[in-house]
Amino acid sequence: MRPQKIVDKDLLIALTSVFRAKGYEGTSLKELAEATGLKKASLYHRFPNGKQEMAESVFNYMAQWVEEHIFSALNDESFSPEVRLKNGLAQIKTLYAGGKEICILRALSMQAGMDLFEQNISIGLNKWINAFTGVGTALQLSPKKAKEKATQTLIEIQGSLILTKGLNDITIFEKSLQKIENRYLKT
Amino acid sequence: MRPQKIVDKDLLIALTSVFRAKGYEGTSLKELAEATGLKKASLYHRFPNGKQEMAESVFNYMAQWVEEHIFSALNDESFSPEVRLKNGLAQIKTLYAGGKEICILRALSMQAGMDLFEQNISIGLNKWINAFTGVGTALQLSPKKAKEKATQTLIEIQGSLILTKGLNDITIFEKSLQKIENRYLKT
DNA sequence: GTCTATAGCTAGATAGAC
DNA sequence: GTCTATCTAGCTATAGAC
Prior knowledge:
The structure is a homodimer of 187-residue chains.
Chain A: H1 8-22, H2 29-36, H3 40-46, H4 50-75, H5 81-95, H6 104-109, H7 111-138, H8 143-167, H9 171-185
Helix pairs in contact in A: 1-2, 1-4, 4-5, 4-7, 5-7, 5-9, 7-8, 8-9
The first copy, chain A, binds a DNA duplex (18 and 18 nucleotides) through helix 3.
């Protein structure tokens, strides 16, 4: 067995950045090959089901990252709810590179991707809502209020990412995160 | 001259619905031909620069619709600011089919589209912000507050469209519009 | 495990008849 | 103005050498 030219993790990171920037249909195997340093045939060796499997792997990789960094921060009961919220929001800022990066879920959800990922997107969004709902209840909100606030939080994260990108102004994303934090902590 | 099989307006409507659903790269000329009832070569007769011109025309058509229906409603000084706001939000609900349809601007902004439309997207978003800022000042907000509120409004519209689509729950979009209205009128 | 070479197809786009 | 037929380029995917 020849050694791998690039380990799985780095491979996934490279694939992620392309899919994130171009979407599913907008990404070609040629670009993926260039971004990873592997030839197309080698990509097929690593992902026998081709482009679709690459996108799915990217999706799963990001889902795991979110689980480990964001949800676990929001749910870490060894900290106060206030600290959990701050840590979670800080991780979210990292995930989106301060607003410069788009939501991978959204990048993959257009076009054919919608068919491929529709159910996983719904599941993923609900996990986000549940994570923020947990913080809300820890901050003494009623379950109903906590869920409403969590939904509103996600709306603002996604919406501010769109405006940040569309207006090319990362302060929009930063202000939104700050606003979200303030609104939780003022309760 | 042979008669047109489909008038410009209907043609644009048909093209719009495909681009909206599939994005720019995700849309093929075959699909556009099927959706319009014209053959590919006929589409090239109507849009000599091909797919890109079709997307640009769709973009301009939607921009005009928004101008005539939404901005003019928000800015119609023959009504009170409260009524202008309500009318504008009602038109927005129509534009997005109550949350079932995505923002065309967003659909075209991924992938190669980002290069094609980047500047127009920024201009378009700013027009939205200005329109809502106008309503805010008419409601006695300071210019600064009015612009902040307008930006927040757009964030929530875009974000709620994403969650509505991702969770397949149109009540999210409806609730967000209601919330936006309440927040303006409570000022 | 990675590579070169290529198959097979579909995309966007054009030529020219009617 | 619309059509059939076709071109070319690029795509996803595979075969087989190393």
